[in-house]
Amino acid sequence: MWIVFLASLGFIFAVASFIGGFRMVRRTDHVEEAVMHRINGYITVGIYVALAVIFLKDRFSLFYLSLWTLGLMVHLFKLFIARKGLGVRYGGYVGAMLIITWLVVIFSHLPS
Question: How many domains is the chain built from?
């Protein structure tokens, strides 16, 4: 049951990072928002990796490994876009993909 809590916490951090990213693009003079956006992003990726390790420890298969790796690639793709300076143009789309990824993680771990 605590894996659902951890996934929900990751979703909250992903949404906070998404909103912080939009605010950071609009107002570039606020350094604090940029720092909070980065901290939220790092915590989100950390929680994602922790969930992947916990899940794969219990039910390992190449199919699940490829799905978790694909989700991590979406996170890394978002970092790549931001580092290249394309965050203003494409950051919202990839950020929305990250939120959808987190929704899939939450709903796939809900107890049945």
Answer: 1
